[in-house]
Amino acid sequence: MMNNIESFAGQDILSVSQFDRASLNAIFGVAHDMRVLVERFGSAELLQGKILANLFYEPSTRTSSSFTAAMQRLGGQVISINNVQYSSVSKGESLPDTIRTLECYADVIVIRHPEVGAAATAAQYAEKPVINAGDGVGEHPTQALLDLFTVQEELKQMNGLTVVMVGDLRFGRTVHSLTKLLLKYSVSFVFVSPELLRLPADILEAVEACGHSYRQVEDLHTVIGEADVLYMTRVQRERFTDPAEYDRVKDFFVIDQELMEQAKERMIVMHPLPRVGEISYAMDDDPRAAYFRQMRNGMYIRMALLAALLGKV
Ligand code: NCD
């Protein structure tokens, strides 16, 4: 458990379970400073001479480029491996060997991988800090941190909120991590999905164990008026083994201006992105649409984490 900012130095970030409220506040404070730094100066030299290895076995736009931008804005450099088919992985190199190789050259490793637990395996073999950037349907801790940071920046509070999560709650790793992280605050949950895409049992049990109020429903219309945070997600096509199943649930919900008329005036719509139709483009000009601000926050959170893990805060 990391409970102050100094204790981050040299650690891995594998799961949101590593954070408590004190460490979250600490990281959000640094992320806020990073925003000010970028807005005033664009960049700094805090991580000059440091190298990040960005190792992606699954597609990514925001996560990989925000880690790259975060490192570069702090004066560091990046080795990017996002076409693993052109690396020695395609020759059959194992994950432990790939990791051991990269840590010869880099000071910190970011990994995204299709298998649950892959980041933890990488961390076992690496001496240098490893950051989980998504392990299959498992976790995506840095996304959850930026999501929570967004809630704090936008609504200035966590306690007392009703969080409505919509879409693929079964395969969406961002939902898994964010739900676990929100258990540290007193929030109420409404989980909106077709039956096939409900939250995994272990996460629901964790919600129950914490005594948080929650409901599972299929109809967004009846609950949208309660939302302080409306967290939309994409149906994770790549996780389905049966394409017919995907087709049945893929157009589960589209949120548009008409639906938003029933929402509170002071609330936010979030989405980890990419969107594939769940949010109409017409929504983008609504001041409650926070998803572009949310992704910008990703860079500040990742700057804060990199600086903390490398012992520079
Ligand atoms: C998410 C992911 O990869 O889990 N994307 C992201 O990191 N912002 C969500 C998704 O792909 O649907």
For the record, the CATH class of the largest domain is Alpha Beta
Q: How many distinct folded domains?
A: 2
Shape annotation: globular
Strand order of the largest sheet: 7-6-5-8-9
Number of DSSP helical runs: 10
* Cα-atom radius of gyration: 19 Å
Q: State the distance separating the first and last CA atoms.
A: 18 Å
What CATH calls the topology of the largest domain is: Rossmann fold
Mean pLDDT: 96
Q: What small molecules accompany the polymer chains? A: N-carbamoyl-L-aspartate
Structural commentary:
- There is one protein chain.
- Helix 2 packs across helix 10.
- The strands form two sheets. Strands 7-6-5-8-9 form a five-stranded parallel β-sheet, covered by helices on one side. Strands 2-1-3-4 form a four-stranded parallel β-sheet, with helices on both faces.
- With 313 residues, it is an alpha/beta fold.
- Helix 2 links the parallel strand 1 (51-56) and strand 2.
- Helices cover 37% and strands 14% of the residues.
- The longest helix is centred in the N-terminal third of the chain and has 21 residues, at 21-41.
- The chain folds into two domains: 5-140 and 297-309, Aspartate/ornithine carbamoyltransferase (Rossmann fold); 141-295, Aspartate/ornithine carbamoyltransferase (Rossmann fold).
- It is globular, with a radius of gyration of 19 Å.
- Bound molecules: N-carbamoyl-L-aspartate (NCD).
- Residues 62-63, 134, 140, 143, 173-174, 234, 236, 272-273 line the site of N-carbamoyl-L-aspartate.
